[in-house]
Structures are given as C-alpha cells and as structure tokens.
Amino acid sequence: MSLVELSNVVKRFGALTVLDEASLSVEQGEIVAIIGRSGSGKSTLLRCVNGLEAIQSGRIVVDGTVVNEPGTDLRALRQRVGIVFQSFNLFPHLSVERNITLAPRVVKHMPASDARALALAVLRKVGLEEKIDAWPDQLSGGQQQRVAIARSLAMSPHLMLFDEITSALDPELVGEVLKVLEEMAREGMTMMLVTHEMGFARRVAHRVVFMHKGKVWEQGRAAETLAKPNTPELETFLASVLH
Amino acid sequence: MIRDLSYIDVLYLIAAMRWTLALTAIAFLGGGLVGIVVALLRTANWAPLRWLGAIYVHGVQGTPLLAWLFVFFFGLSIVGITVSPWLAAAAAYSIYAGAFLGEIWRGCLQAIARTQWEAGASLGLSTAQQLRYVIVPQAVRIAIPPTVGFLVQLIKNTSLAAVIGFVELTREGQLTTATTFRPFTVYLIVAALYFALCFPLTRWSRRLEGRLHVAR
Ligand SMILES: Nc1ncnc2c1ncn2[C@@H]1O[C@H](COP(=O)(O)OP(=O)(O)O)[C@@H](O)[C@H]1O
Ligand SMILES: [Mg+2]
Q1: Do residues B95 and B68 lie in contact, with contact meaning Cβ atoms separated by under 8 Å?
Q2: B1 is a domain residue
Q3: Domain total for chain B?
C-alpha cells in the first residue's frame, strides 16, 4: 500500500474550490516534486496530508491512518509526518536546542539529557551543530530553515512535507538548504515537496506532479515530464518559469 | 469641630493605604482568574464560547463598576442575602477587572501569529501544549505593559469601594479634610501616596520587559 493516498479530494474555502477531486499517491521512499502556478492548491494539498486543513469530500490515507475521519488521532499522525514551511516558523522565544527538543520532550516524554543528544544529532544532519545554543534571530534565513528541518527530523518522521522552503531565502542561501534535502533523499526519506526549483526537481525528485486549478493535472517521471510535457497547461507553465 | 492638620493625620492616611493595597490585590487576583477564562473563551475555536466571552466583556465594560458594587452589597441585602463588604468588593472587582484583563490578554494571544500554532500542531503538540509552550510564553512578554497599566488604573479605582464602607486612602482623605478643612494639603498628600504606589510599578514593568526581551 502507498504511504500517502489521496482520492478525489475536494477542499473549499467558502465558495472557492481549491482542491477539485485531486488524486495522488506516494510510495514509501519516493520523492515527489509538486509544481504549479501560484494559487493552484499546492500548499493546501500538503496541509491536507497532515490534517492542518479539513476537507469537504474524498479520502486521505497517510501511513495507514485515514486523515479525514472524525475520530482520527491527528496528533499521533503528525508525530510521523513532518512539515517545513516557507516562513520557517521557528519558536522565537526558544533557543535552537529547545526548538528542536520541545516536541520530543513534551509529546514523547524524552528525558532532558537524551534530548540534547538528539538535538546535536539532527543538527549534525543539517550541518549546524555549533548553533545548538543560538537563538533563532541570531541565524540567517538559510540557517533558520535548516533548524526547522532538524526540528522535524527530531520526531523521526516517516514522511516529510516541504512547502516552498527556499522561496523566502536570498539566492545565495538556497543551495545550503537544497543540499540538506539531497542528503535526506540519499537516506531514503519519503518526501513531498512543493518547489519552484526546477533544476532541483529534475535532479532529485523521482516524480513530478503538476497541479492546475486544484487538480493533479499531469504527473510522471521527473526528467521526462519536465522535458516533454503532455498537456499544453504544463508546457505553458514550464515556459513561464524557465523564461 | 475643626482641628489642625498634624503628622498623626498623615500617619492615618498612610495606614489607610493598606486597604487600598488589599482591595487592589483581591481585585487583581480575582480579575486575573476571571480574565484567563475570558481570554480563553474569546479565542476559543467553538463560536458559542466566543459569543459567551463577548457578551460578558461587553456587558461588564458597558456598566459602571459602582453599579456592581451596589448590586453585590446593597442589592443582595435587599433580597435577604447579607454579604460582607469584603465579599461584595471581591465579587464586584473580580467581575470588573476580569473583563478588562481578559480583553488585554485576548489581544496578546491573538497577536501571536497563527503560524506559531500551526508549527506546534504539526509537531504533534495538543492545543493545550501549544498554548503553554508556544503561545503563552510569547504573549506574556507583550502582555506586561498593558497589564501593569491596568493594575495602576485598578489601584486608583479601589477608591470606589468607599461607597460600601471601606475607609481606604481617598475616603480617609475625605474624612481628614472634614475635620481639618485643609483640602489642598490633604489631597496633595493623598495624591503623593497614590503616586508612590503607582510609579514604582510602572518602572518595574519597564525593567521586567527589558529583561524578558534579553532572555527572550
Ligand atoms: N485559509 C484560507 N482561506 C481562504 N482561502 C484560502 C486559504 N488558504 C488558501 N486559500 C486560497 O486557496 C487557493 C490555493 O491556495 P494555495 O494552496 O496556497 O496555493 P499554492 O500553494 O499553489 O499557491 C488560493 O486562491 C488561496 O487564496
Ligand atoms: Mg503555496
């Protein structure tokens, strides 16, 4: 069974239909890049996967859990599904260490001594061990985003969701964040990532999903789909992002 | 009988401050408890709870504190329930301060970005844990200046308790004036005593704010 399975998902905000019978499945270990114009529903799709948005109809199954059922334990699900946002969303009143260890300590009841070791271990993965005692506002955007990734990794997720995590960064800081993603890809993490970095998508993603008007409009193997789109909409989109 | 103003009168005025302080403490504690509930109601996800909070706040803010003091002290005795002045004051001031503190704290909670709640939720924290570890610590920082500002107002508003028999600072000033006919001097002293209570609070709030900022 797929790790993520969305079937005919409909999501509306008032009268606006943002996801219109969207269907998508993601296999264990797969890296899926989600592309599409602004407003096509990419963020909403990711947010539905970890239950941040409730849906109107359809079905979402993630890691064996039906997300859109009234009795679903979303907290348990979210411990297994990490999400990283465009705007980092670190906790500004907590040090890097406390940002990372808050959930392991509070949610998983990890003792403080183990928690620091865990913080060091995940910071090593993002190359920021020496920042363990720093405060978020002392870090560059790229460093903050890497801490946000480390914070998610500390929960040992089965699936990671990334929503345009390099879009708020200065161009020279994008590379350091993408490098962390590539490393995670090598380690076999299942990832769904919304991105505008087409080069990165071609290189790292197994599959590209093009969203248009709230639907999964076209999808396929990354290199092929980007080189030879089947639909005029994807062709137009690619022409606009690649100039 | 008119007599001269002596330093004994000043000592009486200072002694009367203890009732001002005691009333303030009761009002702040009671109002703080009510205020926490009000702030949580006003920020609740379930709309009927928010309406309940709104009705309370607007009801209390739209009525004079004096009216609440009268209701609890004289009103209840008319229907046969005797309440001590302390109980009446505690009830009236808690209701009054709770509405204002609740509104102040609601604003501080809502000043914390929705994305902070989401970041907590995405890590598996419960709503209560998001509040306790993510939202409240950040909200407290911005809540200090307006909370202390209200506390200073509260100190001055305890003078209203004179209507149900408390001889606190302002009332003691009135009584002293009645026997000495030296209103200018007496009220100058009264004002100075209020200032001595309020000014250090404001200063302390500034310091605390600065310290919390450095320690994040
Ligand atoms: N909380 C919300 N309330 C109302 N409309 C929203 C909300 N979130 C997103 N939308 C709307 O849904 C549409 C899709 O948004 P989004 O999923 O963020 O698109 P994308 O990430 O592809 O740019 C947009 O038109 C956006 O304005
Ligand atoms: Mg988006």
Answers
A1: yes
A2: no
A3: 1
Please report whether residue B73 resides in a domain: yes
Tens digits of residue pLDDT in A181-211: 999 999 999 999 999 999 999 999 999 999 9
Q: Does B118 touch chain A (CB under 8 A)?
A: yes
Closest ligand 1 atom to residue A38 Cα is 23
User: Which residue of B lies nearest to A76 if distances are taken between CA atoms?
Assistant: B124
Token couple for B130:
């998001």
ipTM: 0.93
CB-CB contact of A55 with A34 (8 Å): no
User: CATH number, domain at B16?
Assistant: 1.10.3720.10
Instruction: Chain A: give the shortest CA distance to residue B109, in Å.
Output: 14
Q: Is A44 in the pocket of ligand 1 (CB under 6 A)?
A: yes
Residue A41 has pLDDT above 90, yes or no: yes
Q: What is the DSSP letter of B144?
A: H
Residues from chain B contacting residue A87 (CB–CB below 8 Å): 115
Give the global pTM.
0.87
> Whose CA is closest to A106, among A119, A97, A115?
A115
Residue B26, domain extent: 7-212
Residues of chain A found within 8 Å of residue B213, distances taken between Cβ atoms: none
